[in-house]
Amino acid sequence: MKHYTRITLLLCLAMFLAPALRAQDEKPLRPVIIPDSYDISIRSVSPLNSSDNDFAPMLLGNGRIMYFTSDREGDQNIYTAMQGGGNWEQVQEAGPELNTSGDEGGTTVTPDGHWMVFTGCDRDDSFGDCDLYIAEYVDGSWRNVKNLGPNVNSPAWDSQPTISPDGLMLFFVSERPGGLGGTDLWMTKRSFGGDWSPAVNLGRTVNTTGDEFAPHIAADNATLYFSSDMHPGIGGQDVYRSKRAGSGWSSPQHLGTPVNSEYDDYFCSLKLNSEDMYFSSNRGSSGGDLDVFLAIPNPLPPGAVTTVIGSVTDSQNGTPIEATLTVRDIQSNEILSSFRSDANDGSYVVVLQPGRTYVITAEAPEYLFYSDRFDVPADSKNNSVRKDVKMTRDLVRLLVYFDFDKATLQPTSAVDLDRAVEWLKANPSVKVELAGHTDNVGAKDYNKKLSRERAQSVLDYLVSKGVAPQRLAAQGFGMEQPITTNDTEEGRAMNRRVEFRVVSR
User: Fold this and answer.
1) Are residues 337 and 401 in the same domain?
2) Does residue 163 belong to any structural domain of this protein?
3) Residue 454: which H helix or E strand, with range?
4) Of 344, 372, 393, which marks where a domain is finished?
5) Euclidean distance between CA atoms 283 and 288, whole angstroms
6) Phi and psi dihedrals of 426, rounded to 5?
7) Rounded-to-integer distance, Cα 284 and Cα 282, Å
C-alpha cells in the first residue's frame, strides 16, 4: 500500500488493514492507466478526523448518524457522529456493547438501523484473529452481540462487511484459503428469516492476485464499490465500481481522479438519495494517517432507488410505535424484506428498487395491521417519499382491488387480505364488520348495492382461508360515509374502499 511500510501499517491499523501489505516482489506489476478526471469537489471532513487513523465511514439510512473506525485512543474502536448544523458533531465512542479491549471496526447497518454487522478481533468466541459479528439495536443501544458463525467466518482474517439494503446479502473481505491471492471479496446470502449460507468468492472479475478491500453495496442492490491495488490504476488502493451482471459482476470501472490519487483511497459510503460519497484516504497527512473525505458528486453513481421514510405512531395519542414493516411484491405476494420502526421516535426507512409494485405493511402488538401500495416504475429517478403511518386498534382500510364496476377481487388484493387472515387467526375472539364504500359517481342505490357486494367478496375470501363465517359481517354504505372530498379524483379514490372494523373482542 502506498506510503506505508508493513511495520508502520501493522502499528497503525492493526489487523483490519494488515493483510493488505505484501512485499512488492510477491506480486506481478500492476497495469498503470491514465485515469478519467471528473469535475467534483473533495474536502476533508474535519470534525471526524484526528491525528491518528480515521476511516471506514458508514451512514445510517437517514444520513443523520455516521459510524466510523478510529485508533485515536490507542485501540481501534467504533465511533459515532451526528449531523447537526450542516456539519458532523458529538463524536464519541460507540460504547462498550461494541467496543472491547481488542480491536473493532468496519461497520455496516441495515437501512432501518436495527442490525449492525461489524468486525471484532481477538474475542473468546472467534474462529480466527478477526471475525464478523452481528448486533441488534434495542432500547437505544446495541445489544445481543453474536458471532456470525462458521458459514461466514474462518480461521483466517475476516473483516470490512457491507450488507445489502434488503438485508439478504453480506459482502466482506477475507484472507482465507481458496482466494485468488492476498485479500479477496467474499459474499454470503440468506433467505428471508433464514441463516447465512457458506461464503463464496466473488470471482476473477472482481478479485485479483493483489489485495481487494472495503466493499460497499449501494442502495440499488446491484452496484458494488471496492478498492484494489492490482486492477489497472494509478497508485496503491484505488476505488472501483462493478455491477451485478446475471450471476456475476461487470468489469470494474476506475473512479478516476480526484477520488483516486497517488495515495491510498478506499472505504466508500454513500448517502441515500444524495450525490454525497464519503471515503477514506491518507492523502491529507504527511504521517500517512487515514482521514475521512467527502466527494460531491459521486462520479460513477449507482442506480436510482425510491426511499420511503416516515414515522409509525398511535392514531389517538401520537405515541411512537415500534412496528415491523414487511415489504412484499404485490404481484407474487413474496416477502422481499422486513424492517422495524424506531421504538423511541417511530421513524423508519425502507428502500425500494425500480420496476416493481410494492405493498409495505406495518404490524405491531395490540394494533391492526396497516398497508400501503408503492408503484416504482423501471425508469424512476432517485426519489424520497414521506409516509407517516397512524396505527389503530379498531378500524383500518383494506388494500383491496376490484374489476371495474364489479365485485370481483383482483389477484393483487391477496397481499393485504392474507394479512387480515393472519391477524384474525392470531386474535380468535375478535368479530369484524367488513364495510364497503363508494365515491359519489353513479346512482345512490346502485352504489350501495355494489359496495355491499364488494364487502361480501372480501368476507368470502377470508372464509375461504379458514376464518369462521360467524366472526364476520358484510355491510354496504355506498356513498353515505365519505372520508374526504369527492371533488377530486384522488379524493374519490380514497372514498372507494373496504374497511375492516372490529366490533367485539
Assistant:
1) no
2) yes
3) helix 444-464
4) 393
5) 7
6) -80, -15
7) 6
Give me the mean pLDDT over the 82-99 stretch.
91
User: Are 119 and 158 within 8 A, CB to CB?
Assistant: yes
Residue 25: pLDDT above 60?
Answer: no
* Nearest-angstrom CA–CA distance, 329 and 114: 23
Please check whether residues 255 and 235 belong to one and the same domain: yes
For residue 363, pLDDT beyond 50: yes
Residue 334 and residue 283 share a domain? no
- Spell out the residues 6+ positions from residue 446 whose beta carbon is closer than 8 angstroms to its own: none
Burial (CB < 10 A; 0-12, 13-18, 19+), residue 50, is middle
> Distance between CA 107 and CA 77 in Å, rounded?
11
d(CA 266, CA 358): 35
Closest CA to 267 of 225, 321, 223: 225
Total domains in the fold of the chain: 3
For residue 357, is it within any domain?
Answer: yes
Residue 439 grid cell? 365515491
Let me know if residue 314 belongs to a domain.
Answer: yes
The percent of residues in the chain predicted with pLDDT above 90, rounded, is 78
Look up cell 478526471; give the residue: 37
Residues 37-53 pLDDT 10s:
999 999 999 999 999 99
Range of the domain at 220: 6-26+48-296
Is the separation of the CB atoms in 290 and 281 below 8 Å? Answer: yes
Residue 374: phi and psi, rounded to 5, are -135, 115
Whether the predicted pLDDT of 24 surpasses 60? no
| Phi (first) and psi of residue 495, to 5 degrees | -75, -25
Amino acid, single-letter form, for residue 492: R
Q: Could you tell me the CATH number of the domain that includes residue 104?
A: 2.120.10.30
* The three three-digit cell numbers of residue 208, written as one number: 485479483
**377, 393, 409 - which closes a domain:** 393
- Do residues 407 and 450 make contact, with C-beta atoms less than 8 angstroms apart? yes
19, three cell numbers: 493483510
